[in-house]
Design brief:
Radius of gyration: 19 Å
Number of domains: 2
Distance between the termini: 21 Å
Helix content: 25-40%
CATH topology of the largest domain: Peroxisomal Thiolase, Chain A, domain 1
Number of strands: 13
Largest sheet: 5 strands, mixed
CATH class of the largest domain: Alpha Beta
Strand order of the largest sheet: 1-7-6-4-5
Structural class: alpha/beta
Strand content: 15-25%
């Protein structure tokens, strides 16, 4: 007798963004880039900025509580997983454990998955596999949070592709045996030639002995050689986005010609529209994060939540979540939205 298929579905998504904002005018003034360029080319109306009292873990906890609501009590969780920014409350700090305690998820284990901005998409694959293999993992909470806005130097023009970074968090409740919003298949492409192109160069074991003498600029996220990175990245990045999406759709059985909704990380509008066009889609098949900015790996989850609210992501849709993380990885995960019949 064939074994019954066990699905893992997304029961709910919640997010949190700080009240304070930096709008296109603020970013334009800070970066000496015309506001019109920030709005039209960069695709940013505003981003949210966390205050000094707000941390990566505290924002993650707020998103988690918004996600759980009255659906599931924290003590009913079996696992809490953090997949957000590696810039956390402290250097070498277990953010997942901190959030487990603050939530009161006393029966849950906790650990972290890191792959920069593609970690959220890839975590769905990892956790789906774990939950199918282990029946004791009935409810898992995945949390992504980012305060990387702290790390952006708006006077460093070589880092301008990161001027879209906004602070915020998202949380996703996964449930074993839940036949709605079912996680399907995932694809990833990695090209390690870009591993050292973007970093916070002043922090790490390579320069521990020089930490006290760290130049001020080395505390920010930096692109080591923008011209060189772009010469290698620009010719391949769109193709890798397309390939990752198509692979996830094909592996999931519906194919690249039957994608109904695309939930990407934040990207400027020209790239987003090009990517949508590759699959015969328009902006009606996505949600533009122009009032969030790039909240690290939370982007795709926010896109799904807002897309459903806007009536763009509907029951029966084939959705694909797609991200890219510096390093460089391109990852996509397909989801059947609504009831799986």
């Amino acid at each position: 007798m064939a074994e019954k298929t066990v699905n893992v579905g997304i029961r709910s998504i919640g997010c949190y963004v700080p009240a304070a904002i930096r709008d296109s005018a603020w970013i334009g003034a800070a970066s000496d880039i015309p506001e019109q360029v920030i709005r039209e080319k960069f695709g940013i109306k505003l981003i949210h900025k966390a205050g000094p009292e707000e941390t990566v873990s505290s924002m993650g906890v707020k998103a988690a509580r918004n996600c759980l609501g009255d659906l599931v009590a924290p003590e009913e969780l079996d696992l809490v997983v953090y997949c957000g920014s590696e810039y956390k409350d402290y250097y070498l700090f277990n953010c997942a454990a901190r959030m487990q305690k603050e939530l009161g998820a006393v029966n849950a284990a906790a650990f972290e998955i890191h792959n920069l901005c593609s970690a959220g998409v890839w975590s769905l694959k990892v956790l789906k596999a774990m939950m199918i293999q282990d029946p004791s993992l009935k409810r898992v909470l995945l949390i992504s949070s980012s305060k990387e806005g702290d790390l952006i130097n708006y006077k460093d023009s070589d880092s301008r592709f990161m001027f879209n970074f906004g602070d915020g968090a998202a949380a996703v409740l996964l449930e074993r045996g839940y036949n709605k919003n079912v996680i399907l298949e995932t694809a990833m492409i990695t090209d390690g030639q870009f591993a050292t192109d973007v970093s916070v160069p002043g922090v790490g074991c390579r320069n521990f002995d020089n930490f006290d003498n760290m130049p001020g600029g080395d505390k920010y996220l930096r692109v080591m050689d923008l011209k060189d990175m772009k010469s290698r990245l620009d010719p391949i990045t769109m193709g890798n986005f397309v390939s990752a999406i198509a692979q996830a759709a094909d592996k999931s059985g519906f194919g690249r010609d039957h994608i109904d909704y695309l939930a990407p990380i934040f990207m400027k509008r020209s790239i987003l529209n090009q990517l949508l066009g590759e699959f015969g889609l328009t902006e009606e098949n996505t949600f533009v994060l122009e009032e969030y900015g790039h909240c690290q790996s939370a982007d795709c989850f926010i896109s799904c939540m807002e897309g459903e609210k806007a009536g763009r992501l509907k029951d029966g849709h084939n959705a694909v979540l797609v991200s890219a993380g510096t390093g460089y990885t391109w990852a996509a995960t397909a989801i059947h939205w609504g009831e799986l019949t």
